[in-house]
Amino acid sequence: MTGPHSAAATPQYSHGLTHRKVLAWRNAIATLFALAGFSFASWVGRIPTVRDIFDASHSEIGVLLFGLAIGSIAGLVLAGRVVERFGARRVIQVCAVLFAAALAATGLSVGLAESFVGALISLTVMGIAFSTYDVAMNLSGAANERLLGRATMPTLHGFYSLGTMAGAGLGVAAEALHIPLALHLTVIAAIALTTAFVVLRFVLPETLADAPPNTQEMAVAAGTIAAPALRSVWLEPRTLIIGVIVLGMAFAEGSAIDWLALAMVDGYNLDNAFGTLIFGIFVTSMTATRFLGVRALDRFGRVPVLRASAGLAAVGLLLVIFSPVVLLAVLGTVFWGAGAALGFPVGISAAADDPKRATARVTAVATIAYSAALIGPPMIGFISDQVGVLNALLVIVVLTALSGLLSPAARELAGRHARNVIDFASPGTTSAAVSLATTELQIISAENLAAEPGNDRS
């Protein structure tokens, strides 16, 4: 009795993949996410020390972070084409080396040479490597998610947050023990690079998760019909709106990463170690929410989860900004972290719904999201010099509210949370209309409407 039942329960995959290989792929990607968070948070946790070494103003710290953001955008410009040509695994491998070198160089430039320009250059290179690594890693994770047939992206981003917890924890210890910045970041870079090369051998080509060809694609391959013209993903309303959703949520996450420790230090007169500890509380809240969020997504779907996330982030931010006591601000940090946790992974999953153009759409959404990193740090730095770092965070409240309003665009295209009229934005779609009804935004394609019963004009 158990033999046939067990065989029936074993998932079946194409291309001869076994369940063990698919799970090993997932675990490898989860580890790579954790390494990214660990490495990046190790840098972020030492920003108060960087400020002290350079005796820098908020605007000058914003300039350093702007260099990181410029590099991130430059990496995104190339990421889609590079991943499509070489595959996610090879791109991750190269970017891991580049990122580790840049992280160590940043520690040496600040801690030993005390060179502002050197740090700016190394942070720019770090941004290029990190954003390209990020796109490749997310694409591989989204492909694995399609194979497994259940939501795993929040869990993968949860491992990123676990990494940030570990990195922030080491940052607190390094601040408290006054460990030299150069030594700290060089050791972190060596650990991350070694681990990445160990797990990369389990990462499989993302093409193994491509959907089988449909009737139209088979006809195109046979030459019986012409291939349909493809619109640029930058002209697809759904893709652009998902990008704006992720922009607001990424702004909420990224601003905390860049500014929360300094906001607590300067806004509440705390010491550097305590400020870094509160940043650790933020990433702990994000981590817990990302692991628990998988169940919420499976039960309620993307739209209610995104709305709740935006509301929670806004409430948390308002507590951090206006709280009269540190304890309430810390509680606000917990809400802020929980609210910011799911926006990016849910947006990536939505962009990758249709595997045929997943690379282009994920790259477009990530590019829009990373523009938050481009404009966010210098904007917050400039505004904080005028009105204070806490009041500058009000900008994020507005953006998270916008994300919540636009969340219906990320609705699932298939499954029990999808609506009857959906847009796969797949090759062959000729037109789209935006319909607003009961505050729900849906992108409706002409083909979908024509396919509905009663619309046959033949």
Quick structural summary:
The protein is 74% helix and 3% strand.
Q: What is the 3D shape?
A: globular
Mean pLDDT: 82
What is the SS-derived class?
mainly alpha
The oligomeric state is single chain
Number of strands: 2
Read across the widest sheet, the strand sequence of neighbours is 1-2
Which parts are unreliable, with pLDDT below 50 for 5 consecutive residues or more? 1-8, 420-458
Radius of gyration based on Cα positions? 22 Å
Number of helical regions: 18
- The amount of helix comes to over 70%
- Tell me what portion of residues adopts beta-strand conformation: under 5%
Order of helices and strands: HHHHHHHHHHHHHHHHHEEH
User: How would you sum up the major sheet?
Assistant: 2 strands, antiparallel
Distance between the termini: 53 Å
